[in-house]
C-alpha cells in the first residue's frame, strides 16, 4: 500500500491558497485573521507510524492585514502576490521578501471575493481582475499610476469564479448569469440568460465552458457563444459544484 501525505494542521482557519506558477512546493496561504504566509513545503520520504508521509513547512515570511483574506494569486512570473481582504483592501507583495509594494485601501464598494490573472500579452504580468460581493468586476494594471483600468456593474450578486477564454474574462455570478468581458476593448461582450440557480465555478476547455451551479447541475456553453447554454448535465452533487 502506498503511503498517504500527512494532513497539514493549522491553528487559524485558512481562507485562501495559491501555488507558485513554477514551483509547486512554494505556496501562499491566507487566513481568516488577516494573516498571509509564504511557505516552502517538503514531503519527507519516511512514513510515520500511521504510514503517512510527513510534511515539513518552512515559513519564509508572514504579513498581516486588518481583516480576513478573501483571495490570493501569484503574478504570471511568480515574482509578486496579489491579495484581497474583507476590508476591501487590494495589495501586492514581493514574493521573495514579503515587502508590500502597493495597496489599494478600498478596491471595491463591497467586499472582494475573487481575483484572476488576465492575458499578459494584452496588459503585462501585473494585469488582473477582481470581483466583489455586489457583482462589481474591475480590471487592474499595477504598472500604472492609476491602476484601475475598467469597472463593470452588469451582474447583481457575488462574483464566485473567474476564468478566461482567448481575450475574454468570464465571470460566474450568484445572480445566475455568466458574463464575458472583452479584455482588450474593456467592455461587456455578452451576458447570458439567467440560469436555474447560482453559478459557482468555471472550467474552460478547447470547445466548451462548463459552469458549476448551486443546484448540482453543470451548465455547458459553446466557447464564444455565452448567451445561452447548449446542454445541462445533472450530477449527484446536490449541494452545488464549488470547484
UniProtKB/TrEMBL annotation:
Cross-referenced InterPro entries: ASTRA_WD_repeat (IPR053299), WD40/YVTN_repeat-like_dom_sf (IPR015943), WD40_repeat_dom_sf (IPR036322), WD40_rpt (IPR001680)
Coiled coil regions, renumbered to chain: none
Top-rank taxon: Eukaryota
Protein name listed in UniProt: Uncharacterized protein
Organism field: Meloidogyne enterolobii
Source taxonomy: Eukaryota, Metazoa, Ecdysozoa, Nematoda, Chromadorea
